[in-house]
Amino acid sequence: MPFNILFFALVLFYFLYGDLRWKPKEECACNPVLFFCIVSMQRSGSGWFETFLNSHINVSSNGEIFSVGKRRANVSSILETMDRVYNLDWFSSASKNECTAAVGFKWMLNQGLVEHHEEIVEYFERRRVSVIFLFRRNLLRRMISVLANSYDKDAKPLNGTHKSHVHSAVEANILAKYRPRLNITLLIPELNQTKETAAKAIAYFKNTRHIVLYYEDLVNNRTKLKDVQEFLRVPYRDLESRQVKIHTAALSKQIENWNEVQEALTGTPYQRFLFKD
Ligand SMILES: *[C@@H]1O[C@H](CO)[C@@H](O)[C@H](O)[C@H]1NC(C)=O
Ligand SMILES: *[C@@H]1O[C@H](CO)[C@@H](O)[C@H](O)[C@H]1NC(C)=O
Ligand SMILES: *[C@@H]1O[C@H](CO)[C@@H](O)[C@H](O)[C@H]1NC(C)=O
Ligand SMILES: *[C@@H]1O[C@H](CO)[C@@H](O)[C@H](O)[C@H]1NC(C)=O
Ligand SMILES: *[C@@H]1O[C@H](CO)[C@@H](O)[C@H](O)[C@H]1NC(C)=O
Ligand SMILES: *[C@@H]1O[C@H](CO)[C@@H](O)[C@H](O)[C@H]1NC(C)=O
């Protein structure tokens, strides 16, 4: 009967087509999955932010996958790595048994992203990847965090273990005891460069669906996480993170040559960094 053949053809087509577009997990067939990428810089709160996202049962954010050098050795390995994530073939501790409605990873600008931005913009367009930019407003505080984290790599005051993130106030206090001395000659050029790098990245992806978040805003206003969930098109939930902020004191208490830093920044566009959290 031609009708039967037509029917089977339709079923077969639907099956194949459905499978190409979505890889539904068990009971939740046909959920569309939103692809995202968190674009950030080191010490800008992206690890903390990602723990919030992964506390959502329908979100899988697979970590800093391009911290591994060979995955970003050239454009083809970058694209292959992303294909694995967005074909839902990437398994990490963030993988969920639940229905995933949004899947992604986080990517630091200096991990091949700026270098290969043209191909990456094209890829994001083709696979409809949405970008979450996460930057810090206070780049001086970020600088302290970068220096302290790199000091910790060698000194390891927490029982000989290097920790970039901590889960208790006791640990945070120990890490915050280190007060770096800033190189005044490099101070403004480095702040300039960081600011420009972030601005350039946003410009590269201006035509990609994106949202720009600032760490300080998330710290001060957890309702921002609602915007994020809307952006990711996932059902709204209260998200949580067990990470504890390391540097909470006034900046004057965290920089060894505070007076010099203060003097160097006063009267420049970066003066506000001296006072703002
Ligand atoms: C890209 O890098 C990978 C991993 O290092 C390597 O195996 C591959 O041959 C490289 N491909 C090209 C086209 O250079
Ligand atoms: C979220 O996960 C739950 C549990 O697996 C599932 O019932 C629900 O349909 C999922 N929601 C979305 C939007 O994927
Ligand atoms: C170091 O290890 C000891 C013993 O396991 C533990 O009691 C202590 O809290 C640890 N200290 C830090 C700073 O993690
Ligand atoms: C600051 O950095 C510059 C350039 O790397 C270097 O020449 C200079 O010695 C440094 N100054 C101090 C006080 O470390
Ligand atoms: C920093 O950038 C500003 C403009 O953005 C420029 O006028 C200034 O010369 C730069 N300073 C240094 C030290 O690079
Ligand atoms: C907190 O964030 C929400 C969502 O972006 C916003 O609507 C609200 O105005 C913010 N509240 C404050 C006090 O900034």
UniProtKB/TrEMBL annotation:
Secretion signal span: 1-18
Residue ranges constituting the Sulfotransferase domain according to the UniProt record: 38-240
Keywords noted in UniProt: Signal, Transferase
GO function terms (MF aspect): sulfotransferase activity
Keyword Transferase recorded: yes
SUPFAM superfamilies per the UniProt record, alphabetical: P-loop containing nucleoside triphosphate hydrolases (SSF52540)
Keyword S-adenosyl-L-methionine listed: no
Enzyme Commission no: 2.8.2.-
Recorded superkingdom: Eukaryota
Cited Pfam families: Sulfotransfer_1 (PF00685)
Similarity annotation: Belongs to the sulfotransferase 1 family.
The protein, known as: Sulfotransferase
Organism from which the protein derives: Glycine soja
